[in-house]
Amino acid sequence: MRASQTEIAVLGALSIEPMTGYRLREEIRTVLGHFWSESFGQIYPALRVLEQEGLVERLGGKRAGASNYALTATGRTRLRELLAQPIESQPPRNGLLLRLFFGRQLGSGACRELLLDTRQLVEQRLGALRAIRAEMASEPHYAADQPYWLMTVSFGEHSARATLAWIEESLAALEHLTADTREEAGG
Amino acid sequence: MRASQTEIAVLGALSIEPMTGYRLREEIRTVLGHFWSESFGQIYPALRVLEQEGLVERLGGKRAGASNYALTATGRTRLRELLAQPIESQPPRNGLLLRLFFGRQLGSGACRELLLDTRQLVEQRLGALRAIRAEMASEPHYAADQPYWLMTVSFGEHSARATLAWIEESLAALEHLTADTREEAGG
DNA sequence: GGGCACATGTAAGCTGTTACATGATTAA
DNA sequence: TTAATCATGTAACAGCTTACATGTGCCC
Q1: For residues A111 and A100, is the Cβ–Cβ distance under 8 A?
Q2: How many Å apart are A157 CA and D18 C1'?
Q3: 3-state secondary structure chain A
Q4: Can you tell me whether residue B60 is helix, strand or coil?
Q5: DSSP designation for B85
Q6: Exposed/middle/buried for A2, CB within 10 Å: 0-12, 13-18, 19+?
């Protein structure tokens, strides 16, 4: 009953349209990339197992050695079961917060740098999300899926904007900190 | 040169005060818990390696079989190096978004349930963060660390509030979705 | 014919969790 | 004395990444 989340991602992607393992990875990386990831080392073994269980089937590929995988009726049922299962949340591991927590050891200047670098990354991220949103909106073929897809993009945008607000607040807090220290040293 | 993030967490925690492996885990779980996690299976082997490298030292424990670990001068230097290293970000894996992305398969009703459950979790999380904030503020002994600690709490709060806003928006989107469907069916 | 994107797969290795075994100390 | 908490450690296993090996088809 090992219902790995990889299985959900693979069956889910194939529920939209049949594709090769290679493209599966490509789609997961680009479309699901802002909240999910899978590597070849996960995908190919998963596909083989899913085929043995009759959840996906191999269609002839466009060329020798390549095969398109398609979801079977059983596979679609299984996907719905998996989606309804409780969410396995991964333990949190935020490297930025780990560093800031020990900011006294790192020094306030380095913390400031860290925040500025992060701000730039998050702004790039916002741009990427805007691009994904535009691309999704321009594909009328998947209209029924779009509301759900846009929700995931919107989550990323809300998170990114919250992070930017937190960065401004934290930069200000660091300013006060160094101002106080200077005052103490000066007084 | 394998600078694992576990090493940062352990050295960092010991930079605040000496403690046993058991308590180390307890502190990481409760104080760093909203953005970090470590298990015994990581902590004890790490402590042994760190001791061999002279980064931490064993002090006699309060009782037989227990030992307090303390940061050495070398250990403190090493911690600062590690904190200054580039952040290793873990690949994203958000189980909630994975399910919502395939929401068309799951059904809008189940998606709504998922969002309502999440809303409750996030509200609890906000309460827990408020408690952590209060506890931190009530310990004047660590005044110099507090501004940094509070930044991490603030991040959690910003994220949580952003998630709540996104949930409201998404619930509204689901309402429109089912309303449209009913209209089509009716018309 | 050379390079690139497409395509499949495996093996080694790292990271991390879980479960278990063991025992000391404390409070009821 | 018994249960809970404190404390240390290991072994088995699951999950995942990376690097490598191999080959096809297309376009310049």
Answers
A1: yes
A2: 31
A3: CCCCHHHHHHHHHHHHCCECHHHHHHHHHHCCCCCCCCCHHHHHHHHHHHHHCCCEEEEECCCCCCEEEEECHHHHHHHHHHHHCCCCCCCCCCHHHHHHHCHHHHCHHHHHHHHHHHHHHHHHHHHHHHHHHHHHHCCHHHCCCHHHHHHHHHHHHHHHHHHHHHHHHHHHHHHHHHHHHHHHHHC
A4: strand
A5: S
A6: exposed
From residue B36, give the alpha-carbon distance in Å to each of A91, A166, B24, B152: 7, 19, 13, 11
Chain A CA closest to residue B81? A106
Write out pLDDT tens, residues B117-161: 999 999 999 999 999 999 999 888 999 999 999 999 999 999 999
Q: Which residues lie across from A180 on neighbouring strands?
A: none
Cα-based angle B175, B180, B183 (whole degrees, multiple of 5): 125
Residues of B whose CB is below 8 A from A166: 154-155, 158-159
pLDDT bucket at B187, cuts 50 / 70 / 90 = very low
Question: What does the pLDDT look like over A102-118, one tens digit per residue?
Answer: 999 999 999 999 999 99
Q: Please give the pLDDT value at position B64.
A: 78
pLDDT at A3: 55
SS3 B63: coil
User: Residue A166: which of A97, A86, A107 has the closest Cα?
Assistant: A97
CA(A169)–C1'(C17) in Å?
A: 36
Q: CB within 8 A of B133, min separation 6: which ones?
A: B150, B153
Question: CB under 8 Å to B99, separation ≥6 — which residues?
Answer: A8, A83, A87, B106, B111, B114
Average pLDDT value for residue range B47-73? 91
Flag if A8 and B36 touch (Cβ within 8 Å).
no
Measured in angstroms, the CA of A126 and the nearest CA of chain B are apart by: 15
Q: Can you read off the two tokens belonging to residue A146?
A: 């779009």
Cβ distance of A151 and B145 shorter than 8 Å: no
* Beta-carbon pairs below 8 A across chains A and B: 179
Q: What is the pLDDT of residue A39?
A: 97
- Chain-chain contact of A163 with B155 (C-beta, under 8 angstroms): yes
Residues of chain B found within 8 Å of residue A92, distances taken between Cβ atoms: 33-37
